[in-house]
Amino acid sequence: MTFRQFAFNNVLRNKRLYIAYFLSSMFTVMVFFTFAIFAFHPAFSNGSVNQNALLGMAAAGGIIYVFSFFFVLYSMSSFLQSRKKEFGLLIMLGATNKQIRLMVFLENILIGFFATVGGILAGLLFAKAILLVAENVLIISESLPFYFPTLATVVTFGSFMLLFFFISVFVSFILRTNKLTDLVKGDKQSKGEPKASIFLSVLAALLLLIGYGTAIYVEGVGVVYAMIPVIIVVTLGTYLLFTQLSVFFIRRFKNNTSIFWRKTNMLLFSDLSFRMKDNARTFFMVAIISTVAFSAIGSLYGFQSYLTKGVKEMNPFTVTYSPWRDDSKEIIENDINKINAILEEENVEAKMEDMELTYYEMLDQDRQVLITKASDYNRFAALIGEETLNLEKDKAIVVEQSDAMLTQGTKASEVLMASNVPLKSGEEIKPSHVIKSDVLGELNGYYVVNDDIYNQLGTVVRSDHSAAWKAEDGQTEQVIEAGRKLDERLDHKAFSVEYQLYEINKAFGPILFIGLFIGIVFFVSAGSFLYFRLFTDLDEEKRKFRSIAKIGLTETELKKVVNRQIALLFFSPIVVALVHGIVALTALSHFFDYNLTVESSLVLGSFALIQIVYFLIVRFFYVKQVKRMVF
Amino acid sequence: MLRLSKVSKIYEGKVAYRALTDINLEIEKGEFVSIMGPSGSGKTTLLNIISTNDMPTTGEVEIEGENPHKLKKNALAKFRRNELGFIFQDFNLLHTLTVEENIVLPLTLDGTRVKEMKEKARDIAESLGISAIMKKRTYEISGGQAQRVAIARAMIHKPKLLLADEPTGNLDSKASKDVMKMLEEINDKEKTSLLMVTHDPQAASYSDRVIFIRDGKLHSEIHRGENRQAFFQKIIDMLSLMGGDGNDFSSVRV
Ligand SMILES: Nc1ncnc2c1ncn2[C@@H]1O[C@H](COP(=O)(O)OP(=O)(O)O)[C@@H](O)[C@H]1O
Ligand SMILES: [Mg+2]
Hints:
Structural class of chain A: alpha+beta
Structural class of chain B: alpha/beta
Oligomer: heterodimer
Bound molecules: adenosine-5'-diphosphate, magnesium ion
Largest interface: A-B, 29 and 30 residues
Number of strands of chain B: 9
């Protein structure tokens, strides 16, 4: 038997030991490949998708690759750790270091090859499944069909063979003479307790505070400039948080006997502090990739909501009609008849109102201002069930500008409140107060005046006809269809909100889908990091609990310790990621000047919920495993 | 204080194996009893049944008139922790804890006050001569010290019955002697009943009585007289009388 054969058989014989390493490598390949399938999708390369979205995807692909590298390297090192005894035996039997390094190298290449092939196959299935889900959840009618991903396959295969090759070289290089003997004799005992430097711990807290502070403080375009520095500072801060600050606190905690010696705390935290070195790495990766997931999904969802909510708010009516400026009375009448006919065609039951929007020149303002009479306003308001106004004689009020307007500086209402409504007679009416209302689709704010006063206003400088329909509830599909026809036949003069939203969602669907996909992939990888972290130490845990159970450990106590241990592992990085996510989404909402509280809570809340469910499932199996061994 | 009546143990498996047959045994309060026998004769099985880590197939175990095997799981764990003390061949210490923490671990689980734990640990460490290593970690101490730490942990709650499985199995003869002297002293001073499994005649000679078992059955027993050296000789004689092959007692140290 040649040594090469020996290495090959070694893999086959120690199946169980290799399976964990193999699966985690395969999983990594699968994630990358599934991502590549979408990134190289023909639908995106024909230019229909926003350039920025493509850039974002490329960046995400790069991040996935970098994390793949660390993840494989990390799985690899815990795999080697668990084989110390085997190496020891081989050395005692006379194997040279060179032979062992060669063996490890060959094994890695072998596992890497099969993991790559397996990952690609699994990725095909996974991608197909995701597409199925996506088609049913998002509006991406046929725009993302399944295809045979030649390019993605080539890229994935190439990148991962390269990656496994480098890792194999790297690892066998690391296993130099002294390292190998270290591995052999270096059991748990030489593993010292990690120490923390006070300086770095303080630095961690400072970096996070500075990062958070900046992210929350900056507004508007400032967000863009601050983004990169803040990301760097917070990433560094997160790393130090887990490697230094948390170690620092755990050590303080361990030195405080009144806490550390309480009940099951000693059992819980003694190991935690020893494993903090390994844990810190996992925590850091999990926190960062979860943050990426939360932010990606949160931003896209927030952006979509920003777009659609603006449209919805500005257009409370089902259909609004505004003619071109030089359209004659006949054309307008003709158009309105057409609209009514189309609505009837599609069986949409709707009520209609129309009015003239009259604009006036104002003394101290550089634009023409809309002034409406209360009765007109009220007719429109009644149509959509808004509160009507009851204006006394001599009264004028100001309607606030739309929320959708991005403003830096004075609001339109302030300007309007500051000036008076001039009458023909030279008198002026002072507006009494500001209200918020979406009744008229005027972005810049306007005056509503008593009908009597309206008749005493000066010359109208501009007059637009406006007609609005409000359909009864529950006719969405007919309304969308009618909207499509209106859009085609009325030359953009008629505007249907429902149809517009449908179009926005359709255009936004694929981008949202990719964001969602990246987010989910990242989140799932984060989950699997935690899973591997937990199960790497399973044997040691079992041994520990077994030896305490011999002296007397109740099942309740065991469950309590295990429960808290897993909870700490699963929730500390996620809580950090959630805080990061909240800060990131706050910054985003400052950038848009748009309140994202609901959207953020929804996204972050869903992730938190998923994590809780995941925690419960993993805990169930883990406790079962430990209990079987211990009792 | 400990009474076994007709205890048998059958290990179920592909081939059922009868490890113990009708063992009757009684230990007085404050007595120090050793159990000897060739390897595979059922010593550990017997100790596990007494320590409630294992259930007898038939027969009864009574500790101070109470049958612990009838207790519910959680109550049983508490019983073990509060009424029994354990010493193992491999010390069974947690390497992530310091010596002191290892000693107080069983007490922490019961929610004892910190001050009380500190005092108890200090007292017992003093009497076992390990005060100087209290802050050390388990890999920084020798085997003999580790076993003394284990004894301290087993004794800190003043158990009624101390059970030891090959306590000197991993120790050199000097450390073995120290540990045995310590156990003898504990038995003497605290009047703790002590049951020890060993195949080291030197260690067994510290006890009041040695029970020999073979093939899962009681074979014979001898009592210690005034002289430990003579007792030791009697044990050696009995072992050779029992035959078996001498290799089973390879750890004989004189
Ligand atoms: N869990 C078990 N299942 C089946 N057989 C066992 C088990 N534990 C011990 N035995 C068998 O019972 C016999 C007695 O074992 P043990 O009590 O460990 O002997 P020793 O006197 O060396 O401590 C041995 O033959 C052993 O193979
Ligand atoms: Mg044994």
